[in-house]
Amino acid sequence: MDRYPPTEEGLKNWGQYMANHPEQKVTLLRIGTLMYFIVIVHPDEIAKLLCMKPSVLPKDDFMYGVVKAYLGDGLLISNFDKWQTRRRMLTKGFHYDILKPYVLLYNEVVEVFLSKCEGKLKNGETVISVFENITVMTLDVMLQCACSYKSGCQLEQTEDRYINAVKDNVDLALKQVTLFPYIIKPIFYLSPHGFAWRKNCRIVKEQTLKIVQSRRESLVENPNLVANKPNKDFIDILLTSKDSSGNGLADEGIVEEMTTFLFEGHDTTASAISWTLHLLGAHAKYQAMCREEVRRVLNGRNSDTIQWEDLSNLTFLTMCIKESMRLFTPVNDIYRMAHEDMHMNGYFIPKGSRFLLSIGGLHRNPNVWENPLEYNPMRFDCELPGGHPFAFIPFSAGHRNCIGQKFAFNELLVAIGRIINKFEIESLTKEPRRVIPIIVKPEEDLKIRLKLSE
Predict the structure, then answer these.
(1) What's the pLDDT at 157?
(2) Of 25-29, 232-236, 252-256, 281-285, which gets the smallest average pLDDT?
(3) Which of 68, 79, 308, 371 could cysteine-pair with 58, CB 3.0–4.6 Å?
(4) pTM beyond 0.70
(5) Which pLDDT tens digit goes with each residue over 264-292?
(6) Is residue 417 part of a domain?
(7) Phi/psi at 20 (5° precision)
(8) Can you list the positions of beta strands (E) in 255-301?
(9) Is 449 in contact with 126 (CB distance < 8 Å)?
(10) How many other CB atoms are there within 10 angstroms of residue 321's CB atom?
């Protein structure tokens, strides 16, 4: 592990290792003295694993246990029957009829971001920190889509304890996997960071529970309340979802899924938007092509609002976003544990073995992608990028693929399309250094210069 830490140097060393060992589809990686991971970076083997029954290859409790105290046993972490039941119950929350109204909400939130940037330009501020501003924007989206909570978090440094707890716990989760002493749970919990973590977990759970209980009481008073709402938020879906026996989720289960939705949704989307803006800011040609496409789709309307019907026509912008997510995959690694003995690529793998499926490594694997470090959106102008159905899987794949991937990608199209239409952007960070635990971010925030586009 010393050669492959979760830093820019470690990632580059890993890329060189893949280039030097094209025949090696399965690698053993030691972390410390006692823990080993079977690392997979080839689409053939990743396909086999992700298509196995979730009961055979569940999520690794050790790795995902970092955030379990915060998220509970929600869809991201749960295994076996609980995961299967929850997945079925929540799937309807990402149906076409539910997703369509969200597009206008995306536009409203992005409009706040654009106005804030215009205000900065009027004050002579032409440079913004990308992740800092985009993360607050995506949190605003998630709060409104989750529970219709309008926090105003984009416009001011909010004193809202709930908002601050949600934001802070993302950083505290990162510290638990990057600062060595914190890997030992008692040390983390006895530290100031551990105290803040427990306090934030309590704040988020208590506030979410209040929202759930208030909504449930309203539903008891008016059983048709949700059915008659034109735009349903995530909590509406959770309150009315039933399993195969006709049972709904208890308050605790709804709190778990709400917290998971916020945690998993806003930071990953912020990563994808931020890296795409950085790359388009570094490639003026592709940025201009995206802007031209957006304006062609808007077709001279009085409003810059990107509508549901427009999304399928933003084909080149889609290619640019996918290429960005290939180079800077928001969730670099996913973890599984063998629940029974198995064989793979000629190796016997005993029950209890841990797998690290490196999606970021797969996406930069020189044995899968030609010139993998080059930003080339045109490689997605084909039916099978990378030549394999599992060569590009930014939302994972198989049984446990991301349930909200359509929700997220629609948000990416609206946010990036609106920003590129409004501003010409120039990347000022020339060689960003990545850190990868949990979400792929830069060591120092990306900087871009804004100019109103003509």
Answers:
(1) 63
(2) 25-29
(3) 79
(4) yes
(5) 889 999 999 999 999 999 999 999 999 99
(6) yes
(7) -80, -15
(8) none
(9) yes
(10) 26
CATH code for the domain in which residue 87 is found: 1.10.630.10
Cα 351 from Cα 56, distance rounded (Å): 10
Between CA 379 and CA 384, with CA 380 as vertex, the angle to 5 degrees is 100
DSSP track, 48-76: HHHTS-TTTS-B-HHHHGGGHHHH-S-TT
- Give the pairing type, strands 35-40 and 354-358: parallel
Structural domains in the chain (count): 1
Rounded Cα distance between 142 and 139, Å, is 5
**pLDDT at residue 289 in the model:** 98
Q: How far apart are CA 368 and CA 47, in angstroms?
A: 14
> Is residue 106 domain-resident?
yes
The answer to whether residue 3 is domain-embedded is no
40 within domain boundaries? yes
* Element housing 448 (H / E): strand 447-452
Q: Can you tell me the distance from the alpha carbon of 295 to that of 116, in angstroms, rounded to the nearest whole number?
A: 22
113-139: string of b/e by CB count within 10 Å (b at 16+)? Answer: bbeebeeeeeeeeeebebbebbbbbbb
- Residue type present at position 236: D
Quickly tell me which residue has 């000022």 as its tokens: 428
Check whether 153 is labelled as a binding-site residue.
Answer: no
